[in-house]
Amino acid sequence: QNRGKREVAKYLKNNIGNLPFLGIGHKFIGSDEDRMTTFRAIAAESNRNDGITSFWLGNHLFVTITDPVEAEAVLKNCLEKDSILRFVKALIGNGSIFAPVSIWRPRRKVLAPTFGLRNLNQFVNVFSEQSNIMADRLAEASDKGTFSIWKYMTSYTMDSVGETTMGTKLGIQKQDNHPFLVKFERLAELVVARTLMPWLHTDFIYKFTPYYKISIEMINYMTSFVRKIIKEKRKAIEDGSNKKDAIDEQNNGTGRPATKCLLELLIDYSGGDKGYTDLELQEETMVMLLAGTDTTAVGASFVMVMLSKHQDVQEKVYQEVLEVMGDEERPVSAEDLPRFKYLDAVVKETLRLYPPVPITARETDKDYVLPSGRKIVKGTGVIIHIWGTHRNPKYWGPDVEVFRPERFFDLQLAHPAAYMPFSYGPRNCLGYQYATMSMKTAVATLVRRYKVLPAEYIVQDGDKPLRVKYDFMMKHVDNFQVQLVRRK
Ligand code: HEM
């Protein structure tokens, strides 16, 4: 098998500096920005090399793909995630996102319909209410010059995800340094650090570090929080008080049926009492908290930064928001969202250039022959390079680096996987519509109230690319800094 891998590495050679034994391991040492720079170099190499390249990380071979035809073949046939992701498992156990295929497949069948559009449309009220809380909080920041909008977005998405997945108002936007947010972020940091530092991979060594105790403590806090809510939900369903809430809400004059949170939908769709166990519900709730919060906050923050850099684009978004919503100040509704067509293109173009998840990985369970005839052998890590695919000039033309939302009008993609911020194929992101709705609601609400300007220290840099870093997700090195000015 190793001979097979060496052969693959030989014909998929890269020119970015393999060392004996280390491979390109030394290129991942350094800052988060250095790491992203390495991933970018790999993407560029792959695009020069007809959409594919490979590199060694120690003795693990990774094939990197930036061609959608090749990517599709892998994503449709090879469903096992790469073992490098195993440290997240301490938190989510067999939660679908990184579960082995045998566990993932039946769970996906239950999870997919819970994310149906009818269910999601009910959540727009939550996104809208939480966006307005964010807009109120930002009034204070808008007088103070340059600041990081990301912090506000993270609290917004955490509160929205909390309410839509667990039916619980976490109130993170209303309390600075809320323990749930602090612990959640610290834990994410620890998991990332462990994944990226191979000497912490062995349990035997990790248990001697101070991080071990802290991470166990955080995991216990998060899981017992979620478990308590599951117990309460079950009880409410049993004694019918969840239905009472529904009636109360109708009587409150909203006239719409009460929102069922994703957790309740999961209980229903998996078969009620006979359906998912508390542990299964806990694992999937953790997946949604983990997969749905930072990703969406990072995406929406990139949109705000791009709007600050492109005032002409922002003006068009603003005019569209006024046109759709009219003059009266009212919350964004589910009916408004599909009418924000230009905003939709702006969100898409932002996620093309700055996909919050810039790479995803699979591990081959057997030898594969790709559509181009190139072979990959069993046990190889395959990096589906989303960033690189979105910058493949063969599919996007010569202006790949230019921010041009209009390209999404009547776009005829040469291949559907040429655009995949939410990945592609049977294991793609389940929350893509949820995320788009949440981002559009937040951005429309903010743009209606504020004009977004670039950070003070930035002088007209138009199409200059943003500096980005990688810590499992791709973020802005300058922390998504902008300025806000209240519109009259
Ligand atoms: C801009 C925001 C988001 C981005 C960029 C994003 C991206 C991704 C990506 C790249 C994957 C991995 C797919 C693969 O390996 O092929 C994924 C998986 C997943 N995401 Fe998202 N996501 C976002 C928001 C959300 C939200 C809001 C939710 C739920 C509330 C969510 C739930 C999931 C789930 C459950 C999976 C696992 C699906 C499976 O394995 O069957 N995501 N996401």
Automatic annotation (TrEMBL):
Cofactor: heme
Localization per Swiss-Prot or TrEMBL: Endoplasmic reticulum membrane; Microsome membrane
Topology within the bilayer: Peripheral membrane protein
Pfam families according to UniProt: p450
Keyword Isomerase: no
Keyword Magnesium: no
Keywords: Endoplasmic reticulum, Heme, Iron, Membrane, Metal-binding, Microsome, Monooxygenase, Oxidoreductase, Signal
Domain of life the protein comes from: Eukaryota
Stored PANTHER family: CYTOCHROME P450 4C3-RELATED, CYTOCHROME P450 FAMILY 4
Function summary: May be involved in the metabolism of insect hormones and in the breakdown of synthetic insecticides.
Similarity comment: family membership: Belongs to the cytochrome P450 family.
Protein name listed in UniProt: Cytochrome P450
Organism: Chilo suppressalis (Asiatic rice borer moth)
